[in-house]
Amino acid sequence: MRRMSNGEILARLRTIVGDAHVISDATTATYATDWRKRYFGRPVAVVKPANTAEVAAVLKLCIETRTTIVPQGGNTGLCGGATPDPSGRQLMVNLSRMNRIRAIDAVNNAMTVEAGCVLATLQQAADQAKRLFPLRLAAEGSCQIGGNLSTNAGGVQVLRYGNTRDLVLGLEVVLPNGSVWDGLRGLRKDNTGYDLKHLFIGAEGTLGIITAAVLKLFPKPCAQATAVVALDTPRAALRLLEHLQSRCGDRLTAFELFSAICVELVHKHFDVAAPFSTAYPQYALIELSDTQPGGGVNTLLESVLEAALESGIALDAVVATSGTQAKQLWQLREHISEAQAAEGPNIKHDIALPISRIGDFIERTDAKLAGAFKGVRMVTFGHLGDGNLHYNVAHPEGGDPAVFIARTAEVNRAVHDSVTEFGGSISAEHGIGQYKRDELLRYKAPVEMELMRTVKRALDPLGIMNPGKVLGKLDS
Amino acid sequence: MRRMSNGEILARLRTIVGDAHVISDATTATYATDWRKRYFGRPVAVVKPANTAEVAAVLKLCIETRTTIVPQGGNTGLCGGATPDPSGRQLMVNLSRMNRIRAIDAVNNAMTVEAGCVLATLQQAADQAKRLFPLRLAAEGSCQIGGNLSTNAGGVQVLRYGNTRDLVLGLEVVLPNGSVWDGLRGLRKDNTGYDLKHLFIGAEGTLGIITAAVLKLFPKPCAQATAVVALDTPRAALRLLEHLQSRCGDRLTAFELFSAICVELVHKHFDVAAPFSTAYPQYALIELSDTQPGGGVNTLLESVLEAALESGIALDAVVATSGTQAKQLWQLREHISEAQAAEGPNIKHDIALPISRIGDFIERTDAKLAGAFKGVRMVTFGHLGDGNLHYNVAHPEGGDPAVFIARTAEVNRAVHDSVTEFGGSISAEHGIGQYKRDELLRYKAPVEMELMRTVKRALDPLGIMNPGKVLGKLDS
Q1: Do A430 and B454 lie within an 8 Å CB cutoff?
Q2: Which residue stretches of chain B have pLDDT < 50?
Q3: Chain A window 412-431: which residues touch B at a Cβ cutoff of 8 Å?
Q4: Is the minimum CB–CB distance between A307 and chain B shorter than 8 Å?
Q5: How much is the pLDDT for A156?
Q6: Which residue of B182, B192, B220, B353 is the best one to mutate when testing the A interface, meaning the one whose CB has the most A CBs within 10 A?
Q7: Share of chain B above pLDDT 90, in %
Q8: Are A63 and A105 in contact (CB under 8 A)?
Q9: DSSP labels for B24-48?
């Protein structure tokens, strides 16, 4: 190890990536502030390498000088995983310049892409190759695939296509010792030793820097059917889900649940058409997709929903008769987050549960919160098909939001205790970062925490990669 | 560490699992011989624990006495991964008594099972719950799920449902330090730290003993369509595959390729009906499945194959008109391995390639082998949809098999060099064990080997778990 001044480190970085790609002025603040504006870091610099070799050279310099690294993609994460600490000593490695699609192999249903590619760009590239890259989420216009991989992003098509982890065939990673692991294989089967890619996916940059990936492509569906169904309870939604899965199989690409209050908030803050003339307690948005053209998938959805209405599982249903109407139905679901924000701050929980237990969980936890925090409003919605709820708690109507937000720790405790009782996860799709680090320590079994620390210590003995994220201090 | 005599170790094992479940007589030879009868080990004993706590107690004893462990399931592996060395010092831990299905949660599409459950039992249990557990392979009547998990088994439905790895939601593992990691979560989304389950899946028992798992269940298809298509070349098969994927999407559950010689051998050694009145160079067996009852899937397959015949991709096609006929078509494919065995020994390669490169690979490698080994017969078949070929080389007709088999190393070199040139894998679905350990060392990049050794050393610093398998010596 060589002690170096910040000035010396910057000079060395400039020789690696070029003067223009080392940022150390006041504009670093944009990079060092997270998307939700909860965390405000201060890095020694933001460096933007152009290729894998430059990333490796930067890493070697960091090893030499014991400079810790915070990798960053599109900076759309919700847990502060890509934000440095305020020490002024951490180096941010921003991957945005590594944005080439290296190859598309349509016959192999695979594309090789660099970490800095924006997700929407990849969706379009797949589309042009007459394929589908199915990762779809709110930030797709600016998030980068390297960040999606590092956080194992979820989104609205997990039900059918899985999480980001499930969309990967191979990876290229710059390791914490500065070497490059070329695991860019485009293979569906490969049992030659440990599956290392899954270690780096979802590790939030704590085990290395993902620089490229081979992603799976899928046949492109050419027919879609969309419906909103009115329901009495989340339990009825579970029965509808089971009914749809048994009849429609893989055609079912979305099953989103949202409650009456979500729809009320959307109507209060946005001009979105109401699906029914009357309000119902719960709603499900359903989408079927098929590679078979024509109206088959619409006929199927209609017949399945008719059966659900007859058997009393569903209270009412509307099937979109055009693409425009389908979009309108989706707007109901897609505007919930913004409508909530317009209504004021709320305490969010990104949780997952065994799907079969969601009805009990909501009932029991709603009652617990109603008892402990008088008048709170439950803005519950989410990807029911994956067991993923955005279980958000808003202040009582007419009450002071600030007073309620001050009780965040208490609310989190009540919700996460309940999640744990029901065998669930306190972070379904947004990861841990710095935001949920202490919660992880509280709820994860010591054996599992220690296993994760063992892996971290082995791969990154110097603690160069994104220290303090996910696992927190290694000696805790 | 305490040095203990074998007698002392056996006595301690008996107190853990009971006298009846420690085998140290001559019958250990059955356990210590692999399925292909290539490896003949000699263990200090075979121990059969009844539950996870007993496995953990056995492991702690092994740590105390520095006894190394070879875990074993149904002993159907093809690479000697579950066979001990001949030292008389290794302990075999056979999981067959841990064969309970702990829970089936149909609404959550999940079942929790112990490692010693036989695969066919799990298929039936899923079926009774009106679900599908899609792992399907030749040894399903005797292989155990713990072995399937440890080798990340493949089989005939990978195209649609993925490898064993993709069918897992959670794991329970006894770690090399004797502690139990309870990762038995039944969640579709969980981003709370590193995904540890993928480390143990496919690690062939070198990182711990998998004792239980939460497995995914799927909607049960109720309609199937099966066809055999005659083709000119593997390249034509690729075009047909692409055509089927774009039209049929997820309905395509099998796409198996086999050459004329495979069919000749089947007809020579078995009484199986010929699909066509004339012979063709290549054949594809295709299966579509659907959750929609009725003949829709048959109509679809017929129309898609009609288009393939018209455009000249396919030379001829027969679609099964009954379940019996479908079974007959499958027999053509299923009897290839046995027909080959009846014809005499051959040199097998379980390889995977980027699907798009299979045509070039076969052409180039066939030519290379024909040049170097006059008159050899290429018995090539496999799961084309996954890029997985069983690329087997048989002795020249009329020649002496023994003379040819003596050249195995040369043949392997030619084939595996070619696989590597084409970006493929030298072990698609059978793993490494001891059989391919040296090949792995030859073909895997040093960075990746070292990364695997780093993980192994970190999790198993004493080298207790299945030493010598997969990675070979750790200091190599």
Answers
A1: no
A2: 476
A3: 423-431
A4: no
A5: 85
A6: B192
A7: 94
A8: no
A9: -STTHHHHTB-TTS--B---SEEE-
- With b meaning 16 or more CB within 10 Å and e meaning fewer, what string describes B15-33? ebbeeebbbbeeebeebbb
Q: Which residues pair with A388 in a beta bridge?
A: A352, A383
Contacts of A338 (CB under 8 A, 6+ apart): A269, A270
For the sheet containing B22-23, what is the strand order? Answer: B22-23, B45-47, B91-94, B69-72
- C-alpha span between A133 and A153 (Å, rounded): 14
Q: Which of residues 340-399 of A touch B (CB under 8 A)?
A: 352-357, 383, 385-388
Paired with B110 in beta bridges are B105, B216
In chain B, which among 206-265 make CB contacts under 8 A with chain A? 207, 219-221, 238, 242, 245-250
Q: What is the mean pLDDT of residues A120-129?
A: 98
What number of C-beta contacts closer than 8 Å exist between A and B? 273
Residue A476: is its pLDDT beyond 60?
Answer: no
Question: β-pairing, A91-94 with A45-47?
Answer: parallel
**Two tokens at A466?**
């994104």
Which 8-state DSSP code applies to residue A313? Answer: S
CB A189 within 8 A of CB B431: no
Interval A219-261: pLDDT, tens: 999 999 999 999 999 999 999 999 999 999 999 999 999 999 9
pLDDT tens for residues A147-183?
A: 999 999 998 899 999 999 999 999 999 999 999 999 9
Question: What value does the mean pLDDT take over residues A114-118?
Answer: 98
Is-contact A106 A217, C-beta < 8 A? yes
Reported as half-sphere exposure (CB side, CA atoms, 13 A), residue B462 has a value of 18
Average of per-residue pLDDT across A284-294: 94
Query: Which pLDDT value is given to residue B476?
Result: 42
Q: What is the mean pLDDT of residues A25-29?
A: 96
Cβ separation of A250 and B248 shorter than 8 Å?
no
Distance from CA of B460 to the nearest CA of A (A): 10
Question: What CA–CA distance (Å, rounded) separates B261 from B268?
Answer: 10
Residue with tokens 């599992």: A448
Residue B396 is classified by DSSP as: P
Burial B221-246 (b: 16+ CB within 10 A, else e): bebbbbbbbbbeebbbbbbbbbbbbb
d(C-alpha A41, C-alpha B318), whole Å: 66
Taking the Cβ of residue B73 and every Cβ of chain A, the question of whether any pair is shorter than 8 Å is answered with no
Query: Is residue A475 predicted with pLDDT exceeding 70?
Result: no
| H-state helical runs in A18-144 | 28-31, 52-65, 119-128
Bridge partners for B40 per DSSP? B33
| Alpha-carbon gap, residue A325 to A274, rounded angstroms | 11
- B contact residues 34-63, partner A, Cβ 8 Å cutoff: none
Task: Indicate yes or no: CB of B444 within 8 angstroms of CB of A193.
Answer: yes
Q: Are A391 and A418 in contact (CB under 8 A)?
A: no
Residues of B in contact with A432 (CB under 8 A): 191-193
Angle between helical axes of B336-343 and B323-334 (0-180°, round to 10): 40
Distance CA A52, CA A405 (A): 43
Residues of chain A positioned with their CB less than 8 A from the CB of B130: 246
| The one-letter amino acid at A73 | G
pLDDT score for A1: 65
Could A189 and B151 be called an inter-chain contact, meaning their C-beta atoms sit closer than 8 Å? no
Q: Are B57 and B16 in contact (CB under 8 A)?
A: yes
With a pLDDT cut of 90, the percent of chain A lying above it is 94
User: Residue A23 carries which side chain, given as an amino acid letter?
Assistant: I
Instruction: Name the residue of chain A whose CA is nearest to B237's CA.
Output: A107
**Which residue(s) pair with B91 in the sheet?**
B45, B69
Of B5, B178, B169, the residue nearest B93 (C-alpha) = B178
The one-character DSSP state at A221 is: P
